[in-house]
Amino acid sequence: MLLEVENLKVCYDTAMILSDLNLGVDEGEVVSLVGPNGAGKTTLLRAITGLVRWEKGAMRGARAGDITIEGTVRFAGERIDGLAAHEIVRRGLVHCPERRRPFREMTVTENLKAGGYLCKERGEVQRRLEMAYQLFPVLKERGNQISGTLSGGEQQMLAIGRSLMFQPKLLCIDEPSTGLASRLKQELFERMKQIQRSGIAMLLVEQDVSSAFQLASRNYVLSHGRVIAEGTSEELLKDETIRKTYLGL
Known about the structure:
This protein is of the alpha/beta class. The protein has a single domain (about 5-245), classed as 3-Layer(aba) Sandwich (Rossmann fold), CATH 3.40.50.300. The protein is about 40% helix and about 25% strand. The protein contains eleven helices and ten strands. The chain has helices spanning about 40-50, 50-60, 85-90, 110-115, 120-135, 135-140, 150-165, 180-195, 210-215, 235-240, 240-245, and strands at about 5-10, 15-25, 30-35, 65-75, 80, 95, 170-175, 200-205, 220-225, 225-230. The strands form two sheets. Strands 6-7-8-3-9-10 form a six-stranded mixed beta sheet, sandwiched between helices. A four-stranded antiparallel beta sheet has the order 2-1-4-5. β7, α8 (about 180-195) and β8 (about 200-205) form a beta-alpha-beta unit. α4 packs parallel to α7 (about 150-165).
């Protein structure tokens, strides 16, 4: 198993966000996390990739103790739950955040190159850049454009392209289709299929359950910080309670 999460708990002050959560992602696999708003899906991705721990360190002093994290996270057989976020990235576990978050005053090309900052070989950075352009040709066309002026769909492509510049083994993608028109959403998911075919595993948080289920080989349903169901898309859609209560289908 490439990613193994065991008994993960995250509390913000007195609020339990994640409770005794377990999941796994195998090499080359696409796994989706679905469920209602507030279920803890984004917090789960941030905890796995070290960002919740970073927040805890940033709060130390004035608000020390507001965040509590327990549990075990292993990646490629190595325990990573005590590592800083940038060290987790070095190992190939990369987070593509919700709401795209480009460096808005920088150009598209500068944003992409920022994703390759851990690589010190100029030739390798250029190779990764060309791979991003091949996957998202519009990024090459917009190379000199300021990122803050891109459309929502182009910003999402940029966010994924920048994440791929880190050369991930596992890419955690949070809500990639939010705010996108149907045509752009379909195009984006086609590109994500190409990413999967390249051998990169993905852990996907997505509100569009139908799109997520078409892409993923396995799915976890979260509610109130717990995994309440796990299975293939076909298995979960056969459960009427899960389908109507938690998936909105």
